[in-house]
Automatic annotation (TrEMBL):
It comes from the Eukaryota. It is found in: Membrane. Its main location: membrane. It comes from Ilex paraguariensis. GO terms for cellular component: membrane. This is Uncharacterized protein.
Length: 74
């Protein structure tokens, strides 16, 4: 628990007691936050993985970095 605000950093630790005690004020943050984080993480992954090659083809060469450097020298 954070001493300043009293917020819990673990959504499961916040949602469970809130449901049992019927206190739902501010609970939306612990539900929407992980969903938004998951979606943002998916977009970030797609931005970082800038190649259209399947993962099998990238890992077949042994090193992703080696495969990029080989493609740049062609």
């Amino acid at each position: 628990m954070v001493p300043v605000s009293g917020a819990s950093m673990n959504p499961a630790r916040s949602i469970g007691p809130a449901i049992v005690m019927h206190r739902y004020k501010g609970l939306w943050v612990y539900i929407i936050g992980p969903l938004f984080g998951t979606i943002a993480g998916g977009f970030a992954y797609n931005l970082i993985r800038f190649t259209d090659k399947p993962l099998r083809e990238l890992t077949k060469s042994g090193s992703f970095i080696k495969s990029i450097s080989r493609n740049n020298h062609r």
